Amino acid sequence: MVVMEKEEIPHPAPPLELQKPPEPEPRPPVMIKVDDVDFCYGTHQVLFDVKLEIPPRAVTAFIGPSGCGKTTLLRCFNRMNDLIDGAHISAGKIELEGHDINAPNVDVVDLRRRVGMVFQKSNPFPKSIYENVAYGLRVLGETKKSRINESVEKSLRAAALWDEVKDRLDSSAYGLSGGQQQRLCIARALAVEPEVVLMDEPCSALDPIATAKVEELIYQLRENFTIVIVTHNMQQAGRCSNYTAFFYLGRLIEFGATSKIFSNPSERKTEDYITGRFG
Amino acid sequence: MRASRRTRNRIAQTTAFWLFRFATYAILAAATYIFLDIGIKGSRTLFTTSAPFINVPFFTQGPQTLFVFDYEGKKYTLSDREFRAWKTEHPADVAVTSVAYSAGGVWPCIVGTALLVIGSMVLALAVGICSAIYLNEYSQNTRSIRLIRIAILNLAGVPSIVFGLFGFGLFVIFFHWNVSLLAGWFTLGLMILPAIITASEESLRAVPNGLREGSLALGATKWQTIRKNVLPYAIPGILTSSILGIGRVAGETAPIMFTAAYAMRDEMPWQVQRWTDFVFQGVMALPYHIYVVSSKIPQNEYTERVQYGAACILLLLVFAIALASIVLRERTRKRLSW
Lengths: 279, 338
Prior knowledge:
The complex is a heterodimer of chains A (279) and B (338). With 279 residues, chain A is an alpha/beta fold. Helix content of chain A is 37%, strand content 23%. In chain A, a hairpin with a 2-residue loop joins strand 9 and strand 10 (251-257). The longest helix of chain A is centred in the middle third of the chain and has 14 residues, at 145-158. Chain B has helices at residues 2-46, 56-60, 80-89, 107-138, 143-157, 160-174, 181-206, 209-217, 222-251, 254-257, 286-295, 304-335, and strands at residues 63-71, 74-79, 97-104. In chain B, strands 2-1-3 form a three-stranded antiparallel beta sheet.
């Protein structure tokens, strides 16, 4: 048998140079991989075949008109949608560093520590500034005062808030301005040292000056974190993101480097949206 | 055409306005009359014209029989104890009219009511808060949960006498607890439970969802979130609305008349032989005492004193509790605002 096969093999082989596939571009490492995801609220489907790969240590912006599923997808990444009755991924899967986040053996509490979130409406706890930042550490079981102190200062510094609040750490977080409150929420999310930080329209309730501060902060944070930001503000996406995904009616229309999406989009819809012709 | 419609509208508007105004004032008038009547007649019992201006025996003694008689042209109205002392000094035979419960005071009733309120509120709050947390934080909106909610609403509408009969059948007879504080606690606790659950759910719902999501997003478990970031902000609201429940527990007669209340008991609740007997003793209670002295004994001019006195004390008690709830609410409102 073996001999027979060997005899059948010889046939003219094409020249080696032609057979060689084109040199593959070095694939960027992937932090979050969204693989053909469909998502439903009950029977109402809001995401269709979404497929994208979010690179680590970069800012990825989700843009698109209201109701296009940006926030829904964002909330899938830390399974916040689990809290909504009937909401579920009906097809496809989401992987964080190669592991399916919806697998039955995944501890959702652990996932949420690795994937932090900043909400649209800043939601500091009605506690002191210090306790707000320390909260995440405390629920993780950290009791050492020195470790907590260190982490609170580090997180507040990372959120560019330390100099403004260092003298009043024990006063209520509600005494802060809107922009400071949102940066406090960012500091709070950073305190548990997540790998990914999700931001759901973090500047929608802020004035331009506070917005500029938060944007600057986001730009700095990408050195250490993977950031996914949902925004309605085109300029914001252009200013502070490395990659942009454009969604429309629950579908991902285009995903690529921000510079390309904004200067030379390959889809007509993207161009129309960015130039303000609709949406 | 247009002018006449405008006139008609104006008349309708004025009529409706006066109707509502009248209804409101009618309530006010009725309430004022009731409170004034009880307040004035009750204060004749509660206060005296000479120092210390407060009728101390009424607050510190148990109910006693009143003895009324004429002796040597003088009219005497003596309590049981006084009459016996008088009798030893004057061994003469006199024609005596005795009126039950109309002398002495209502101290054991106040104590009994306080014990009933404390015990039943502790029971109802413990069970009520737990089930409200389950319903509002943990349970999904399934058919069985909806059924439970309807059941709770219906339970709130059950007449209190039905609770009384239920407590009598289950606790007093079936569990052999007899007429006891324990049976009263459970009966009153069950009666107030739906109100506590509803109030607790309301307070839990008032805590913004952002706090829950913010906490969960930091890697807190559901229980950590509830314990550290939901309950602390809901507890003041729960307590405030529960205090109004205290008023109801303090004033109900029907649930305790078969389960916990004695018409008359000479010992105070702490005069028990063994401390384990404490929860198995019946007590006197203000609302039941009012019921007894106003409908269980022959009425005459001497019975009014204790009726209005007891009613006035109960009213003051409920007022004080309601006031405390308002103060508490205002305080927490200042402290917690989002």
